[in-house]
# Entry
Amino acid sequence: MEFNEEDNYLMLSGIQHFQFCKRQWALIHIEQSWEENVKTVEGQNLHSKADSPFIREKRGDKLIVRAMPIKSNILRFSGICDVVEFIKDEDGVEIFGNEGKYIPIPVEYKHGKPKKNDSDILQIAAQAMCLEEMLVCEINIGYIFYNEIKRRVEIPITQNERNKVKQIAEEMQDYYKRRYTPKVKTGPFCNNCSLQNICVPNLMHKRSVKSYIEGKISE
# Structure
């Protein structure tokens, strides 16, 4: 079987999980443990409206592409942009099959409202960095549409966000390579976690959820 280097690329969407809780990210992306809750189901329904596979739509000087696959060989991330809006601009890049030059702007759809942490911001920054690498261009802004407030928020893509994305990418790659599931401090945020029935305090001292379940079965 031919080995594909991209098979080891991490899901860009995992940044959300990693920033919310590093243990949650490891349970999902390393140990393949998952449970649905109301918020994850509602979020999937919202994304399904944006994720019409790689459909292009032309609106004046704007080209809208839905469910656009993206990747970065530098960050070793891959994923799908909900929407990329290509805005006609002489300082942009050429897009095959279209006249003129365009600047790509990533647009992410979220079920809730703006978060207190920077997980949404870093996710859209990572998308911008992937697009920059793929299209050889510079992207200064992105947008996040929050369904709860029914509007989009403009996100500046600054050097600070870029540095954070690089740091997080390195840490995620290290955990994944070592198959390491970290222990974390529990708190009120655990009540909003879709894995609260899997990630319980008495598992914190275990090597992994998988080994715990296997131990219970052998008993």
About this structure: Confidence is low (pLDDT under 50) at residues 37-50.
